[in-house]
Specification:
The chain has 542 residues and is α/β, with parallel strands linked by helices. It has 15 helices and 27 strands.
């Protein structure tokens, strides 16, 4: 019997693998790096669940409503309902598995406030929640590796989904060490490969998350959704050509944003938004910061009002990172911050069960467009990865046919040289990728407009013309194969942003301010017959 194949060893991938193993369904976990290098390890602040501890009088219904509102009503309400009502079970399960969450003196799971939420709802492990989560999941997965239910293969990259008659049959993978191409047949394929950081280059996430798998699938006709919804985290700081995240937990514990005016601190969020202040949703804070930055005024994040013992015990990771990488002591001086690309709400279009439009292909985590709508609440990413991975696994198990397929891809697909036939050498892929990064960063910032995005679209088309039919002898096979697909995906993002003529959540257009009811729909992008088709479809369940 073929095994379920999972692409990606982050929280979503491990969650799916463990759930399959719990039900005695064997799977293969494929990734370039071990789980300890997955982007999920970089999550700091926490994971949301209405646990109703610490006297919060919280309920999943309120978590649902605040998630839906923060996403500006663009998410599938049924999916949000399932996520938020399943959250307490997820967090308690992780705690039972041994995850080192902070607890109160009464022995309850401790909670902290996070942006866009009126209750303390975010369970946490100091400022290293992602590391603790991944350690817990990896330890759990090893139990099933020992009895053969989970097979882990590292050192391999996704090259292509193999389909037959509209059904996923398996995947082609490239060995990082040998450069060989091999076929892995699958009873089902769960894509948990993360976001599209590589298109922009300066995101807070892992540089390993290039979005190549998403780009490849889009080029093969798989629909993507809400690609224009790119979250800028309001508290990042520049570091060696990329942005380092300063977790929202700092503001959750009392950190304050300010700018200097007339020699005094002006706490702009607290003045304009007195109810939630520094804990407004991320899209709101990022836009407010941007108004100051445009004037040449630097925003700061101030931790000095947080009691020292709280910072040391709950934000130790932040103190360490600032000391090691910024030569700055946040207990003594403020942290200069600016918005940085952090999360992709858009991605592979899935339904509430995480099925895609290709049979036996599923997507979960940041690779999928689900739960977050036009803006993600902090603390909902790890939750979405955990819950989405288990949901995708449930769907894969429901669709199992219990027999091994005799299908095999064409033999030439296993020859690396086949993928570059007809191409000429001479392409400088790193330099070309940096050019693409700069173009997208400029046009798809916090504020956007028709002129800049149209110019960027034209520039990407010209870049496409200059690079078509060429390859880089120094680059890996998968990089050469998927770069044209990355250009195609970049055009789809731009066309989605151009098509949405309103401002909603993370998508702010200076030429179309305000939300418009006719655009409370899903932006669907499909590559068909050599063209990108962008349409607006009713939100699932509406």
């Amino acid at each position: 019997m073929d095994k379920v194949v999972i692409i990606g060893s982050g929280a979503a991938g491990l969650s799916a693998a463990i759930h399959l193993a719990e039900e005695n369904v064997p799977c293969i976990l494929l990734s370039e790096m071990p789980a300890a290098r997955a982007q999920s390890n970089m999550a700091e602040g926490g994971i949301n669940a209405a646990l109703n501890t610490m006297g919060q009088d919280d309920q999943p219904e309120l978590h649902e409503a605040e998630t839906y509102k923060a996403g500006r009503f663009l998410a599938c309400r049924e999916a949000v309902h399932r996520l938020t009502h399943g959250a307490p079970t997820i967090v308690r399960m992780l705690y039972d598995w041994g995850m080192a969450l902070n607890i109160t003196e009464e022995g309850q799971i401790a909670l902290r406030p996070f942006g866009g939420q009126t209750k303390k709802r975010t369970a946490f492990a100091s400022a290293s929640t992602g590391k603790q989560l991944m350690y817990t999941l990896a330890t759990k997965a090893r139990m099933y590796e020992a009895n053969g239910r989970i097979e882990t293969r590292t050192g391999c990259r996704f090259l292509k989904l193999v389909e037959n008659d509209g059904r996923a049959m398996g995947v082609l993978i490239l060995s990082v060490t040998t450069g060989s191409v091999s076929y892995v047949p699958a009873a089902g394929v769960i894509l948990a490969s993360g976001g599209m950081n590589g298109l922009f280059g300066n995101a807070t996430g892992s540089v390993l998350n290039k979005g190549n798998a998403t780009a490849s699938l889009f080029a093969n006709g798989l629909p993507l959704a809400n690609l224009e919804m790119i979250q800028y985290h309001p508290t990042t700081t520049k570091l060696h050509g990329k942005n380092m995240l300063i977790t929202e937990a700092v503001r959750g514990e009392g950190g304050r944003l300010y700018v200097e005016q007339n020699g005094e601190h002006f706490y702009f969020m607290e003045v304009k938004y007195p109810e939630l202040g520094n804990l407004m949703p991320r899209d709101v804070i990022a836009r407010e910061e941007w108004q100051w930055i445009k004037q040449g005024i630097q925003p700061y994040l101030d931790m000095r009002d947080i009691p020292k013992e709280v910072s040391i015990h709950k934000l130790a990771g932040v103190l360490e990172a600032c000391h090691d990488f910024l030569s700055l002591d946040p207990l003594q001086e403020p942290i200069p911050v600016s918005p940085g690309i952090h999360y992709f709400m858009g991605g592979i279009y899935v339904n509430v069960t995480h099925r895609t439009r290709i049979r036996n292909l599923y997507a979960a985590g940041e690779a999928a467009c689900q739960y977050h709508g036009a803006n993600r609440l902090g603390g909902n990413s790890l939750l979405g990865a955990m819950f989405g991975g288990r949901t995708a696994a449930d769907a894969a198990m429901d669709d199992l046919h219990g027999r091994t397929s005799a299908f095999r891809p064409p033999e030439q697909w296993l020859r690396p040289a086949f993928w570059l036939e007809g191409r000429q050498s001479g392409l400088n892929l790193p330099a070309t990728r940096k050019t693409l990064n700069r173009l997208l960063q400029k046009a798809l910032g916090i504020e956007r407009n028709e002129e800049d995005m149209q110019q960027c679209l034209q520039d990407v088309r010209e870049l496409e013309l200059r690079t078509t039919g060429r390859y880089d002898e120094q680059a890996s096979l998968d990089e050469n194969v998927t770069f044209p697909d990355s250009l195609l995906l970049s055009k789809a993002i731009l066309e989605s942003a151009l098509a949405r003529k309103e401002s909603r959540g993370a998508h702010t257009r200076t030429d179309y301010p305000g939300e418009r009811d006719e655009y409370r729909k899903t932006t669907l992008s499909v590559f068909k017959n050599g063209e990108i088709h962008t349409t607006f479809e009713p939100i699932e369940g509406d």
